[in-house]
Amino acid sequence: MIDSISSMTVRPVASFGRGFAYPFRAAGFLFKRPRLLRYLAIPFCINLLIFSLSVYFGIDLFNGLLEQYLPTGDAWYWVLLNYLAWIVAFLLTAVLVFFSFTVVGNLIASPFNELLSERAEEVISGTASDQPFSLRRFWSEARHAMGVELKKQLFFIAGMIALFMVNLIPAFGAPVYAVLAPLFTLFFLVVEYLGFVLMRKQLRFGRQQGYVLKRPLLMLGFGCGVFCLLAIPLLQFFCIPLAVVGATLLWCDFPLSAAEE
User: Fold this and answer.
1) For residue range 80-107, what is the model confidence (pLDDT) as tens digits?
2) Span of 48-52, 153-157, 186-190, 214-218 with lowest mean pLDDT
3) CB under 8 Å to 37, separation ≥6 — which residues?
4) Which ranges in 32-134 belong to alpha helices (H)?
C-alpha cells in the first residue's frame, strides 16, 4: 500500500520534472549537432534587436513614469509613496518589456523557428524531408507561419485582457486573477512553442489544446522551464530557439497515441 502511494506521488513529480528539463536538454542537443546552430543565427539577431529596442524604450517609459507620478515631500509617508511609485513603475516597465519582446520577437522569428523545428525533428527521427529547400517554399511557409503566429498572439492578448477585466471585479477578482493569469501564461508558452511541430502534424488549434491538456503535469513543467529561461538575464536571447527545440524533443518522446488519432 505504501509503495503504491509512493509511486503515485513520484510519477506526477517525475512528469513535471521531465517537462521542465526539455528546454534545457535542447541546449545539449544543439551543441552536439553544430549543423543546427546555423538556424539560430537569424532568430538570435532578431531577438537581440527586439530586446534591445524593448529595453531602450522601456527605460524611457520608466523615467517618464517616475517624472510624472513620483511624489515629492519630506514627510515619512512621502518617502513611502516614493518607494511604492518606483516599484510600480519598475514592474509596469518590466511587464511591457517582457511582453513586447515575447510577442514581437516570436512573430518576426516564427518562419525561422518553424524551419529549426523541422530540421531538429529530421535529426531526431533520422529521416530527411523529401522536399528540397527553396526560397519560394520558404517564403510560402513563412507567410503561413506568421499568420498562425499572429492568431496565437491575438489569442494571448485577448485572454490577458479578459483576465484583466476579471481582476477589476470587487472582492474575488484579484485572487482569481492571481491564480489564472500565471496558469494562462504557462499554457500559452506551451501552445506557442509546441505549435510549430503540432501544425506540421496537421493538428488544428482545438486538437492542439487536447494534446496539451491530456498531459497536464508534463506540459506544466515544460511551460515553467520556458518561463525560467525567459526570466534569466542573457539566456532570454536563446530562450525562443531552445523552447522550439525542446518542444520538438517533447513531441518526439510523446507523439499522439492511437486513441488520440
Assistant:
1) 766 776 676 666 666 666 666 667 777 7
2) 48-52
3) 30, 31
4) 41-69, 76-125
Helix/strand/coil for 85 = helix
30-52: burial string, b at 16+ Cβ within 10 Å, e else: beeeeebeebbebbbebbeebbe
- Integer angstrom CA distances of residue 241 from 42, 133, 192, 193, 194: 10, 20, 12, 9, 12
This prediction's pTM: 0.74
Mean pLDDT of 29-53: 79
Cα 95 off chain centre by: 14
Write down the domain spans for the chain.
2-114+135-253
| Residue 224 predicted with pLDDT over 90 | yes
Residue 91, classed as helix, strand or coil, is: helix
DSSP calls for 171-215: TTHHHHHHHHHHHHHHHHHHHHHHHHHHHHTT--HHHHHHHHHTS
Residue with cell 520534472: 17
d(CA 14, CA 219): 12
